[in-house]
Amino acid sequence: MTDSTPLLSGVPFIPRGVRLHFDKVRALWVLLAPERTINLDPIGLAIMNEIDGTSTLDQIAENLSAQYNAPVDEIAADIREFVAGLMDRRILEVRR
Description:
This protein is an alpha+beta fold.
């Protein structure tokens, strides 16, 4: 992902077969995918909670920036890194 502009203007969505789940045994939120489990830290969970299949990543960055009173550029950088990692693992997709 060398150009982040198209990524931030895209709409992220969770593909079929992947779901957000609260693991009661470990008391943490995870992403469940075929044969994989991804533990979510508070930042990852905040990002995943904003993914609704209609909001762009740019809109998500603005929402989280307002919610946490943090600079939108820093939030956008965190989102880019998080989303790129999940896309590489085929756990999240982005419609451009």
